[in-house]
Amino acid sequence: MKSLLLVLAFCFELANAFYLPGVAPTPYKKGDSIPLLVNHITPSINPEDSSAKTYLYSYDYNFPRFHFCQHPDGPEKQSESLGSVIFGDRIFNSPYELKMLENKTCITLCSDIYSKSDAAFVNRNIRAGFKHNWLIDGLPAARRMLDEQTQTTFYNSGFHIGFVDDENTPHLYNHHDIIVEYHKRKEDEYRVVGVIVNPKSINQGSDVSCAPQEENPVTLSQEGETGVTFTYSVYFVESPTVWATRWDKYLHVYDPKIQWFSLVNFSIIVVALSIIMSHILIRTLKNDIQKYNEINLDDDVIDEMGWKLVYGDVFRPPKNPMLLSVLVGSGLQLLLMALSTCGFALFGLLSPSNRGSLATLMFILYAVFGSVGSFTSAYIYKFFQGEDWKTNMILSPFLVPGALFAFFIFFNFFLIFANSSGAVPIGTMFVIVLVWFIISIPLSCVGSLLGFRRQVVKVPVKVNQIPRQIPKQSWYLKTSNMALIAGIFPFGAIAIEMYFIFNSLWFNRIYYMFGFLFFCFVLMIITTLLVTLLLTYYTLCNENYKWQWRSFFVGAGISIYVFLHALILSKFRLGGLTSVVLYVGYSFVISLVIGLLCGSIGFLGVMVFVLRIYSQIKVD
Ligand SMILES: *[C@@H]1O[C@H](CO)[C@@H](O)[C@H](O)[C@H]1NC(C)=O
């Protein structure tokens, strides 16, 4: 047990040990200027005050109501990858001037006056725990934290724009101590290996001095105008950390032992259960097949029971074969995208300093796997004896991606309405659509054509002319109840990970536990497959031959739990309509996507299973 843990931990370490080759270190000489870039201002959860409202959308650093200092020549947008734009990065240059090895103390940056309404706006956001996200040499500016359980220090990226004191009054941080950690590689060659910012709130009088004045922080009055002067200091500190491991302090895993432990425990249970289940299933099936093939010689015995009875109907095409085949194809497309993204990340091919590379990769893989999705969709549609192949070919690349895009646009309206920087600009929307039409649709058409060309697997038993009556089924064999039962198991596999994914989605945390994720994902696939197979086997034994939609819905049962989990376990109070719409909406879309993914796993697994077992029995 312990050694297994160690091996797993080692693999995880190994995956973290090497970074993307494309990211080369930047060498600096003494006096070289190091640009400080400012990213969007993001929300966070305020752990001290549970009554504080949480907002789920970010703002531009340059949003005028904040009055933060801007570059003298006006803010200039930095180029970003498609994925990082989609995921909300808005990076601009800043007026802060950093020169390698040149300490500066108390530089005045700018002064501004906050009106009543702007003060109220900033105070609201201080209470909501909004955070700055600065970037220096690709590293996020962080605060140094202590993990009390393991007594280790780590860097928590971002820092708050202000703080709330004991009397519940918000104060704005207007002075920043920037501490740049450098590593000396050789004579006059330095590299940045860590950035810490300690923000302070200092009410500057007529003479600007940056000595901390605990008793006199900046308070933005909501009754009158308040003038604020922004200052900063820069310190360069030598560090033994080498460039290659500079991210380690940022990628801090809270209590990794417990996480691995629960995961390994869970996976042992899953593996044990699946071995037992498949053993029972295989034995029962063998018995069944043997019995059926013996009985077949003796025509008089009709009182036989079980799945053999429905052999004449089991390959009867389901209702709505078009929709089912398109959904299964789209689910497979999502599955392949998720698996391969995880795979890339697992082998360290996605460095955290390559901002947005994960999102870009996901988007491109999704577009490329459209071909496989359409192929499957066409193949299954043909298997269902569908004839309207043109509609199938059009629906495959449009139905699910189109629905996702429609959701995306809908949420975007709310973001625009809330003045959030998260709203994706029209140009990016245009690029997404363009990529879709140039990469995905042609590939997907090729996939469809290949799918239709391909010889469909031969059905082992002929379909009877007259459909068989389905006997009354017990309550627990209803599709909806079965989906409810089945969903719990795969959900158990990913429940731990959902928390972290949601956190990184909403609060701009770096997600890096791809080892865990990959492992959980595989467990989820296995459990979905097994549970769906088992339940479908039961319904076939109860002479219910309609397995096609059922297996899809039973597999998709996990989505109910993902959605409920997101709604019930959100430990924060949402502020404003936009936050509520975004939270519920995104939870809904995510659970739909997971449902689609697991539904297609369920369907494809059962399809193979049904083809296999019915080819084993002899029928005249
Ligand atoms: C800059 O400040 C840091 C921290 O106070 C100090 O350790 C370092 O020696 C200073 N560097 C120079 C070049 O003065």
From TrEMBL:
Entry keyword set: Membrane, Signal, Transmembrane, Transmembrane helix
Residue intervals passing through the bilayer: 260-282, 323-347, 359-381, 393-417, 429-452, 482-502, 514-540, 552-572, 584-611
InterPro entries hit by this protein: EMP70 (IPR004240)
GO BP: protein localization to membrane; vacuolar transport
Main location: membrane
Entry-linked PANTHER family: TRANSMEMBRANE 9 SUPERFAMILY MEMBER 2, TRANSMEMBRANE 9 SUPERFAMILY PROTEIN
Protein name: Transmembrane 9 superfamily member
Top-level taxonomy: Eukaryota, Fungi, Dikarya, Ascomycota, Saccharomycotina
